[in-house]
UniProtKB/TrEMBL annotation:
Ranges for region Disordered: 58-93
Name used for this protein in its record: Fibrinogen C-terminal domain-containing protein
CC terms in the record's Gene Ontology section: extracellular space
Superkingdom of source: Eukaryota
Keywords per UniProt: Membrane, Transmembrane, Transmembrane helix
Length: 394
């Protein structure tokens, strides 16, 4: 009567169970139900939709039970537990989906951030907007200006950044408005390289006792003794924050140096005033550019044989036979008479006094500048429109 049944035979089992349950007492019903429940081959769902209420000791048929739901043994889990399980399963499903959603969102975030970064890099390789004074434009130096389709460099720092590692002559374009080229000597090895030499002396072959216009425009050859010109020096020191490096060789063959920060030379309207950061000196030559016995060229204007801007009672250009940023004359006179002969007695040599505590001249001198910040300066631009014209035409 209670043999195994497949799922397809649940209807007949239910009919048999219903017929029996209506004709026996409660104890017999319990025994019959126990046999049916303990059957290893017939499950509860396969045999009946009735259930046994242990509190009353009676079987409840579908007609007297809850409508629309499968009844179960009363001490099974109540409805609220079933609902909790259902909610738990739903929550588990939601939780299982969350890592996937997080991964997808993370991928989108990476894609978006990468795209934004790429656009930013490409933009910076072009140009940024001008600052408030209208004549300075910061650039990423991987962006190069072009002249007639040819890439051009502003200074030796640019050349160094683009892989030029050899000392020697190069053509640069420090003025962005006129794009006038100048030939310079680049020191690509000293202190990391990238130095643009603006003064060089080595044998006395060039006369440095000259007038204002000569120093303004420059003289000599970059391959030998020369002065780069104060106009060009101004442009080079306004390309960005600039260092000054003075490299000296004594007649004994010993080399010395002096290095300064924030070096700048104004334009001609301010008489090519020199400035540098006080206290920034480094080196073994002695601080010949800072304050030594009222000799402080920092902040001083340039003086030549025909234009005197020093603070001395006499004219330092006559006393020193040179041209420099004299204050009350100076302890530095690298544009004086070359040598260590008669000029030593007259204190007119091309000396750096602190090397030997004397006015003896130096055998070799290199005075160099190097830009630190990636800035671009248009000395002749009078407005933002001028500046943009300079950049956009390239």
């Amino acid at each position: 009567m209670y043999s195994d049944r497949s799922e397809g035979s649940r209807g007949s089992g239910y009919a048999q169970f219903s017929a029996i349950s209506s004709s026996i007492d409660s104890k017999q019903s319990i025994a019959i139900y126990t046999v049916i429940s303990n059957s290893t081959s017939t499950t509860y769902d396969k045999i009946s939709e009735g259930f046994y209420d242990r509190q009353t000791g009676k079987f409840i048929t579908p007609k007297s039970g809850r409508e629309g739901k499968l009844p179960r043994i009363r001490d099974d889990k109540p409805d609220h537990v079933e609902q909790e399980n259902s909610n738990s399963n739903q929550e588990h499903t939601k939780n299982s989906k969350r890592p996937c959603i997080i991964v997808i969102l993370s991928v989108f975030a990476v894609i978006i951030s990468t795209t934004v970064a790429t656009i930013a890099v490409l933009y910076l390789q072009g140009q940024d907007s001008p600052n408030d004074n209208g004549n300075m434009l910061r650039l990423n130096r991987s962006y190069l200006r072009k002249n007639n389709g040819t890439e051009i460099f502003s200074d030796c720092k640019d050349l160094k950044l683009f892989g030029n590692d050899s000392d020697g002559l190069y053509t640069v374009y420090p003025d962005p408005l006129t794009e006038t080229p100048i030939v310079v000597y680049c020191d690509m090895t000293t202190d990391g390289g990238g130095w643009t030499v603006f003064q060089h002396r080595r044998d006395g072959s060039v006369n440095f006792y000259r007038q204002w216009d000569s120093y303004k425009n420059g003289f000599g050859e970059a391959s030998g003794e020369h002065w780069i010109g104060n106009d060009n020096l101004h442009k080079l020191t306004t390309l960005g924050t600039t260092e000054l490096y003075v490299r000296l060789e004594a007649f004994s063959g010993v080399w010395y140096y002096a290095k300064y920060s924030d070096f700048k030379v104004a334009d001609e309207s301010d008489e090519y005033r020199l400035s540098l950061k006080a206290g920034s000196y480094k080196g073994n030559a002695g601080d010949g550019m800072d304050n030594h016995g009222s000799t402080d060229p920092s902040g001083m204007q340039f003086s030549t044989i025909d234009i005197d801007n020093d603070n001395a009672t006499g004219r330092c250009t006559f006393a020193r036979q040179g041209a420099w940023w004299y204050n009350q004359c100076t302890l530095t006179n690298l544009n004086g008479i070359y040598g260590n002969g008669d000029c030593l007695t007259a204190e007119q040599c091309n000396f750096w006094y602190l090397i030997s505590s004397s006015y003896v001249g130096v055998k070799t001198s290199y005075i160099m500048v190097r830009r630190l910040e990636n800035q671009f300066y248009c000395a002749s631009c009078k407005s933002i429109n001028d500046l943009m014209f300079v950049l956009c035409r390239h």
